[in-house]
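Changelog excerpt

This revision adds worked examples to the README so contributors can see how folded entries look when concatenated. The first example is reproduced verbatim below.
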Amino acid sequence: MAENSSCCTPEGSCHSGSTDVQVGAVTTTYKVTGMTCGHCEGAVSAEIGEIAGVSAVQAVAATGLVTVTSQAPLDEEAVRAAVDEAGYELVGQAA
């Protein structure tokens, strides 16, 4: 097989127009207290993931940090309500 006959791009992607990179996406990191395990991470991620415009959530109990990718900046009160619904406390945006 010829070297250039691969469908993969030089970056290693096998798909053109990859959806992994979101143009115009906003990433915000929040500090949440009370998370101690994977279940906690899942609960916080699920609630925040239901906010309109959120495309990805990564919660890490060990650090208390929750990274949220969204189409536009989120209303912090909406994030606070989601974290509260999950049973945890939003401290605010991480520095």
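The second example, added in the same revision:
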Amino acid sequence: MGLDISFLPISHLASLPLSYEWDDWDPYEVVGEADDELVDRLAGLSFRAIVSFAIGCAEWVICRFGRVSKDPVPLQYLEACWAYIMSDGFEAPPEMEDEDWKGNVRGAINLALMTVLNTIYGIEDESPEPEAAFIDKVALHVLNADPLYIAWREKVFQRLEKLYPRAKRNLLGSPIPREIINPEITVTLEEADAMVDAFLKKIEKESNQFLNSTDEQ
């Protein structure tokens, strides 16, 4: 299937100059720390909503490099993350090999992907918020705080806050369709399960090395 990112402003993002600072040795130094206010705001969302937000941010990062990187691996990785957070039938993807992902393009992509994975890992400790907030910093850094990204972030956040607030009895929350990160598509709780099922049915495991089934599927 592959992820459809056509709803993102691809041409605009691809035209952005690669003018941001980068350091493979310590990318955290140049990206900066997660925003505390965003961490607090994320704490009001279900764990699945937090991961969905993080994956959405990563999709912007990957789309930003569409002009200089045609590698299909990053979107395959995120497809596996979506499958994992939607269903118990898939494993979380493994960590990437850092040595294969260096430089201001591949290094930035790798940081985004690994931060999504760390957000998923954060669910076990009931603290995925800091990692999700950090991936927003990654996106802001490589996108040079592009206004289109900032507007998208707020629209998606408001949708998640409305539809998927955190409940003490169910911190993980219900599965969330990928359409939630596309503000052009209306998502209702009544339609969400059908959207999730449609996504999972379209997955082609044989064409994505990161899609590994669990025994529960």
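Reviewer comment on example two: Residues 103-122 form the longest helix (20 residues). Residues 20 and 158 are 29 Å apart (CA to CA).
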